[in-house]
Amino acid sequence: MPAHIVLIDAMNLIRRIYAVQERPFHYMDTLSESTKQQIIHNTKIHTIQAVRKILDSQQPTHILAVFDSKQPCWRYQVYPDYKKGRKKMPEHLEQSLVSIQDALLDLQVDSLVSDDDEADDLIATLAVKVALRAQDVTIISTDKGFLPLLCDHIRVFDYFNQRHLDEAYVRDKFQVKSTQLIDLWTLSGDSTNKIPGVPGIGQITASKLLQQYHSLKGVLNASDLKNSLMKTLDEHKLQMQLYQELLTLKKDIPLGFNLKDIRIPKPVSQQAV
To answer: Any binding-site annotation on 120?
Structure first.
């Protein structure tokens, strides 16, 4: 039986589930302790239900839930404005993560918590290592940052909309290929991560440039651009180098475990929580 490794972007899944459970209480200025505990309880139940559905639909041979480090990752060190303004994780949710990880382990889904890197970098590293062995990987996430990894052996699945974020999705949404996305966001910026891009270049302009010149390098080497655009690009070369570094997921992190460590040993019970 060929291997199929499922990698769950755990905080992407949990925080979206938490947001749905918290939404009915948005009218309240503060949450009581009992309300917080009810939201956490519901979040845990729905997270486990979601992972059960993922196991059923994806039929993995191996599975791992990957969590972010509690400490700011290396991107904040090289670019202090990285994800600036993003809402912090509620303390009561952060304190519940160990309990959720224990519940996942009851489903035979182990968790990996990063020490220094973002979960995205760990997932990218493992996905690429597996794909190089011609084995299949499905990343469970709505994070567009995984889309540059798309290839014959790496897929991205949006659990909440129950669809694969494939090359057709990339072409429809961004008007470029998945291999051009890093260059696209370098030029146009990435509001999710507070990366500004090059002034005056939005997604439409960036996609047209990449359609014509194929890559950021091709754009920078083009001799037929408007003088004003050439000047702007030249003035922002150092910033673009930084943006590319921030946007590119690391693929060489030492992981310290083997695939056999995350193999599902036996069918998972489908009993309700």
So the answer is: yes
